[in-house]
Amino acid sequence: MTDSLSSSRAIVKYNQHRFTETTDKIVIEFPLTIYINNEEFATMVCSPQHFEEMVIGFLASEGVIHFKKEIKEMTLDEDRALPMYNCILKK
Protein backbone atom coordinates (compact mmCIF):
# COMPACT_ATOMS: atom_id res chain seq x y z
CA MET A 1 0.00 0.00 0.00
CA THR A 2 1.64 3.21 1.12
CA ASP A 3 4.19 4.18 3.74
CA SER A 4 2.49 7.48 4.53
CA LEU A 5 -0.69 7.70 6.58
CA SER A 6 -1.35 11.34 5.73
CA SER A 7 -1.14 13.79 2.88
CA SER A 8 -0.96 17.59 2.75
CA ARG A 9 -3.88 19.25 0.99
CA ALA A 10 -5.09 22.77 0.35
CA ILE A 11 -8.02 23.62 2.61
CA VAL A 12 -10.12 26.60 3.66
CA LYS A 13 -10.29 27.25 7.42
CA TYR A 14 -12.98 29.25 9.15
CA ASN A 15 -11.85 30.99 12.33
CA GLN A 16 -13.17 34.08 14.09
CA HIS A 17 -15.62 34.92 11.29
CA ARG A 18 -12.91 34.70 8.60
CA PHE A 19 -12.01 32.23 5.89
CA THR A 20 -8.33 31.58 5.20
CA GLU A 21 -6.65 29.32 2.68
CA THR A 22 -3.92 27.08 4.03
CA THR A 23 -2.62 23.53 3.85
CA ASP A 24 -3.32 20.81 6.36
CA LYS A 25 -2.70 17.11 6.71
CA ILE A 26 -5.51 14.66 6.07
CA VAL A 27 -5.59 10.95 6.84
CA ILE A 28 -5.29 8.60 3.88
CA GLU A 29 -7.78 5.73 3.87
CA PHE A 30 -8.43 2.89 1.45
CA PRO A 31 -11.38 0.58 0.82
CA LEU A 32 -10.62 -3.03 1.74
CA THR A 33 -12.98 -5.83 0.74
CA ILE A 34 -13.15 -8.86 3.02
CA TYR A 35 -14.03 -12.23 1.56
CA ILE A 36 -14.91 -15.30 3.61
CA ASN A 37 -14.29 -18.61 1.85
CA ASN A 38 -14.09 -16.75 -1.49
CA GLU A 39 -17.45 -14.96 -1.00
CA GLU A 40 -17.62 -11.20 -0.54
CA PHE A 41 -18.55 -10.34 3.06
CA ALA A 42 -17.89 -6.62 3.61
CA THR A 43 -16.01 -3.60 2.33
CA MET A 44 -14.47 -1.27 4.87
CA VAL A 45 -12.57 2.00 4.67
CA CYS A 46 -9.40 1.87 6.74
CA SER A 47 -5.87 3.14 7.07
CA PRO A 48 -3.30 1.24 5.01
CA GLN A 49 -1.71 -0.46 8.01
CA HIS A 50 -2.39 -3.53 10.12
CA PHE A 51 -4.93 -5.01 7.68
CA GLU A 52 -4.68 -8.49 9.15
CA GLU A 53 -5.37 -7.35 12.70
CA MET A 54 -8.26 -5.17 11.54
CA VAL A 55 -9.82 -8.03 9.56
CA ILE A 56 -9.52 -10.49 12.47
CA GLY A 57 -11.03 -7.96 14.89
CA PHE A 58 -13.86 -7.17 12.47
CA LEU A 59 -14.70 -10.85 11.96
CA ALA A 60 -14.72 -11.36 15.74
CA SER A 61 -16.93 -8.30 16.34
CA GLU A 62 -19.38 -9.55 13.71
CA GLY A 63 -19.55 -12.98 15.39
CA VAL A 64 -18.04 -14.77 12.37
CA ILE A 65 -15.19 -16.12 14.52
CA HIS A 66 -14.52 -16.35 18.24
CA PHE A 67 -10.81 -17.19 18.05
CA LYS A 68 -8.06 -16.45 15.55
CA LYS A 69 -7.38 -20.19 15.28
CA GLU A 70 -10.73 -20.57 13.48
CA ILE A 71 -9.07 -18.98 10.43
CA LYS A 72 -7.24 -21.55 8.31
CA GLU A 73 -5.66 -19.06 5.89
CA MET A 74 -5.63 -15.33 5.16
CA THR A 75 -4.51 -13.92 1.82
CA LEU A 76 -4.06 -10.24 0.96
CA ASP A 77 -4.37 -9.36 -2.73
CA GLU A 78 -3.12 -5.80 -3.33
CA ASP A 79 -2.88 -6.20 -7.12
CA ARG A 80 -6.59 -5.57 -7.65
CA ALA A 81 -8.15 -2.15 -8.17
CA LEU A 82 -9.44 -2.43 -4.57
CA PRO A 83 -7.33 -4.49 -2.16
CA MET A 84 -9.00 -7.58 -0.75
CA TYR A 85 -8.43 -10.05 2.07
CA ASN A 86 -9.70 -13.59 1.60
CA CYS A 87 -10.18 -15.56 4.82
CA ILE A 88 -10.58 -19.30 4.58
CA LEU A 89 -12.27 -20.57 7.75
CA LYS A 90 -11.74 -24.01 9.25
CA LYS A 91 -14.75 -26.27 8.97
UniProtKB/TrEMBL annotation:
One of its GO terms (molecular function) is sulfurtransferase activity. The lineage of its organism: Bacteria, Bacillati, Bacillota, Bacilli, Bacillales. This is Formate dehydrogenase chain D. It comes from Halalkalibacter wakoensis JCM 9140. Keywords: Cytoplasm, Molybdenum cofactor biosynthesis. InterPro entries: Cytidine_deaminase-like, FdhD. GO terms for biological process: Mo-molybdopterin cofactor biosynthetic process. Pfam families: FdhD-NarQ.
